[in-house]
Predict the structure.
Amino acid sequence: MERRSSTWFAATGRSGMNHRAWMRSQGFTSEVFDGRPVIGIATTWSELAPCNVHLHRVAESVKRGVWQAGGFPLEFPAMALGETLLRPTAMLYRNLLAMEAEELIRANPLDGVVLLSGCDKTTPGLLMAASSVGLPAIMVTGGPMLNGKYQGADVGSGTAVWRWEEDLLAGRMTEAECAFAEGCMARSNGHCMTMGTASTMASMAEALGMQLPYSASWPAVDARRYETAQRAGQVIVDLVEHDVTPDKIMTREAFENAIRVNAAIGGSTNAVIHLLAIAGRLGVPLALDDFDTLIRDIPTLVNLQPSGKYLMEDFCYAGGLPAVMRELGGLLHTGALTVTRETVGENVKDAPCWNRDVIMPFDQPFQAAGTGTAVLRGNLAPDGAVIKQSAASPHLLKHRGRALVFDSPEAYHQVAADPDLEVDEDTVLIIRYCGPKGYPGMPETANVPLPAKLLKRGVRDIVRICDGRMSGTAYGTVVLHVAPEAAAGGPLALVRTGDWITLDVPARTLSLDVPDDELAVRRAAWTPPPQPAARGWTWLYTEHVQQADKGCDLDFLTGASGARVGRDPH
Ligand code: FES
């Protein structure tokens, strides 16, 4: 079989000379052009993405493995998305990373690709890219940070920040204590070490079969992270030799596995959006409702923050994802293929569990089946909304209250500390115009901190509803991803302060208790917000982004174009 890369490097005449000569400027000997597999290593390294800053070193380990297996590794940068720095939100750029990486993989002389990611959006962005090209691919996520430590106790990245902010607002912590504490949380390389979005998506990549067993949980600074990376370098050469492309691994069965594993690990709601987007690239039929119906018999097994107690380092030492997948047993499609060229069942059949307080047995779970992500519908969310039940307060899962409406998180923050704010524990707090078009980019604004007035009274949760997202490190009774969003004319735009809203999670409904004729009057008076940008990426994004129930991919990026490359002008 002629390699794809050979059409560059084995070409005769000026074309071949051009392709080879400039590569030799890096000091490679001519043997690298002998027809061996050329392996791209897409790295989302950047000092502006602290969670990914060690990926350069991970890439060196991957290269060792590729050389060992007889391949030719070439590292290249892909857009690094640092969750904590990018404004308005890294989510605005996930599709740009996916588009950039797709074109880079396709346009270069590659036979396979290793995807190095870590921070939240880099994992789904690279998987979307690889799915649309279809060359053999394997993912290596960068691994979680070591546990944070403050005053002798573990603190989880992200999750601790939400608590400290509330403690500060409620007067339980001083500014000086907060300043000291923030230096104790993110104390090593790696991504957030709670079961936030980064850990969730790393686990999803493993559950889908796209990264090696245990790869999601080795801490970023653990030698086994680098050993796994080296192994991945060997494996990608094997995948190229056997033409194992992502569509053979990421099948409908693999997505069903991932959705069930996400329920078992108490993973982030962001996985809903990202898995829908990846499936859309592959043409795998997947719907928002699958995230509810497929998990009703899946208990939460993993006792990790933000829903539970422990952190990713503990999860690793307890046995990691293979121990969870073994526990799920026949509830998974154990025959699904993975990058090991073995099945899920073969990969996890002997996986031990070393700590039953971290990874609990199926018959004695951390949280009972039916407490995972629920998909809600009703006249307030005709195309759906989600709620993470395991992070919510049980007494609020059936609730009726009056709306307190804000058209932006900023508008809410301006009054959140007001002691005279008209709010009580029954209030339903609505933060809208935070969807993909509205903010734009669908930021993690849904879990705004409670009004200071309530915090000081000891209230720790109220119902919040938003067309934005919630950080995977956050918690609370928060209805997310309301679709259609307010900026697209969804009914959320028509709610007024004082309206009654009924949330009934067991019945999967979310209702605005306002008569239809009154809603029609309000709709006639509603005007859409102006386009947030007149040019550039933000304009392109807001013109083409799909709603949350479709995964927020751009409409013209769904599907795949394959690996066929354009013409060679040389
Ligand atoms: Fe990068 Fe949390 S900020 S993973």
Notes: The mean pLDDT is 95.
